[in-house]
Amino acid sequence: MQTNRPSSVPAIPVKDFSLPCTGGTFKLSAQRGRKLLLYFYPKDNTPGCAAEGADFRDRHEAFLEAGCKIFGISRDSLKSHENFKAKMRFPFELISDAEEQACAQFGVMKMKNMYGKQVRGIERSSFVIDENGVLRREWRGVKVAGHADEVLSFVKAL
Predict the structure, then answer these.
(1) Domain harbouring 13, CATH code
(2) Which residues are annotated as catalytic?
(3) 3-state secondary structure string across the chain
(4) Is residue 36 part of a domain?
(5) Domain count, the chain
(6) What is the pLDDT of residue 8?
(7) For residue 106, what are the domain limits?
(8) Using 50, 70 and 90 to split pLDDT, how confident is the model at 114?
(9) What φ, ψ does residue 130 adopt, rounded to 5°?
């Protein structure tokens, strides 16, 4: 099982996609000119996802100072995202990928064990995309503790 070990990726532009998000519609190509962190998480209002989002929330200003916008992505509905964002006071937007378009593109859907049963869900993963829309680093099988700091360090060095 991988933990927060980042993996190098070939410098290939990420295919454009458009999805609903809190605050409007997210379109990848509209984000050109700034670094992006796309973090995929399993489910709104769960302990691990709340802790991960809080870590990114608490470092949001530092990410902005490094020229990077944060977006969280899960399969939850826009209504669920709006409630989760308000409850957690997230200063960044949450993208709804109910039909798994971005999940498929980034290969984050996995079979996981939950309470002794096999279930299909999002593997907690993060992706940093540069100002030109090129994927620069990915983290898969993320453990929440220390992850936001590791991603921030990478973004600052990019």
Answers:
(1) 3.40.30.10
(2) 49
(3) CCCCCEECCCCCECCCCEEEECCEEEEHHHHCCCEEEEEECCCCCCHHHHHHHHHHHHCHHHHHHCCEEEEEEECCCHHHHHHHHHHHCCCCEEEECCCCHHHHHHCCEEEEEECCEEEEEECCEEEEECCCCEEEEEEECCCCCCHHHHHHHHHHHC
(4) yes
(5) 1
(6) 56
(7) 6-157
(8) confident
(9) -80, 180
Cβ atoms of 42 and 121 within 8 Å: the answer is yes
Instruction: Judge whether 138 lies within some domain.
Output: yes
How far apart (Å, rounded) are the C-alpha atoms in residues 119 and 154? 32
Residue 51 lies in a domain: yes
58-88: pLDDT as tens digits:
999 999 999 999 999 999 999 999 999 999 9
Phi-psi category of 25—alpha, beta or left, where left has phi over 0 and alpha has psi -120 to 50?
beta
Q: How far apart, in whole angstroms, are the C-alpha atoms of residue 48 and residue 91?
A: 18
Q: What tens digit of pLDDT does each residue of 28-48 get?
A: 999 999 999 999 999 999 999
pTM strictly above 0.85? yes
Q: Evaluate whether residue 1 is within a structural domain.
A: no
